[in-house]
Design a protein that fits this description.
This protein is of the alpha+beta class. It has one domain (2-199): Umud Fragment, subunit A, CATH 2.10.109. The protein has 3 helices and 12 strands; from the N terminus they run αβββαββββββαβββ. The strands form 2 sheets. Strands 1, 2, 3, 4, 9, 10, 11 and 12 form an 8-stranded antiparallel sheet that branches. Strands 7-6-5-8 form a 4-stranded antiparallel sheet, with no helix packed on it. The longest helix has 12 residues, at 69-80. Residues 150-171 are annotated as: Disordered.
Length: 205
């Protein structure tokens, strides 16, 4: 029990996927392991899949309904020590923009651009596209711009921003960690990629 608590506190934590917003990378019911070793500002990279708390109330009320009674208390105790996956009050998205990046939708090819470079995003849900909402923001210091891989079914930075890049971006201190692998169900077990080649040509800001 103590070892499990230490692992959850300092190293890794399980989370479950409740929605379709990251399909096909992640599907409802997937269990992922989140590394807490790399959530720092210097460690995050474009393309990382991250879990963060619902700091801005992005989740609908129904999605955050808490379990009650003895069963709810038992589940919460298991979550506390890392023996039961969390997920009800957290979100999981892909980092598209780092602090200082200018992120836009879209260029003439319908691509998201970061610092003027169009992204070829192989992880996007097939046929879903990425131009559901047009925007142009510069990501503030200490924050990241996140989007779901299933762009047509993801309530992400695009839909919570006020045009300044502030309300839609995620504070880095709200990030729990980086999702590194799907561990359940067995037939979906895989390491998660940040598709670094997608962002190779993006200049630093």
């Amino acid at each position: 029990m103590v070892l499990s608590l230490l692992i959850k506190t300092f190293l890794a934590q399980p989370f479950w996927i409740p929605s379709e917003s990251m399909e096909n990378t992640l599907v409802p019911g997937d269990r992922v392991v989140v590394s807490k070793l790399t959530p720092g500002p210097a460690d995050l990279k474009r393309g990382d899949v991250v879990v963060f708390g619902d700091f801005g109330h992005w989740l609908p009320a129904a999605a955050t309904t808490q379990r009650s009674g003895v069963g709810g208390a038992f589940v919460k105790s298991l979550q506390f020590v890392g023996l039961y996956p969390s997920g009800d009050d957290h979100l999981i998205k892909r980092v598209i923009g780092l602090p200082g990046d200018t992120v836009r939708c879209c260029n003439t090819r319908g691509q998201i651009t970061v610092n003027g470079v169009g992204l070829d995003e192989p992880y996007i849900y097939p046929g879903g596209g990425t131009d559901q909402k047009r925007f142009s923001v510069t990501v503030p210091a200490g924050r990241v711009w996140v989007m779901g891989d299933n762009r047509g079914d993801s309530s992400d930075s695009r839909f919570h921003d006020d045009g300044t890049g502030t309300t839609g971006s995620v504070p880095q201190d709200q990030i729990v960690g980086r999702a590194v692998a799907v561990v359940w169900p067995v037939d979906r077990m895989t390491w998660l990629s940040n598709y670094s080649s997608t962002f190779d040509k993006v200049p630093k800001r």
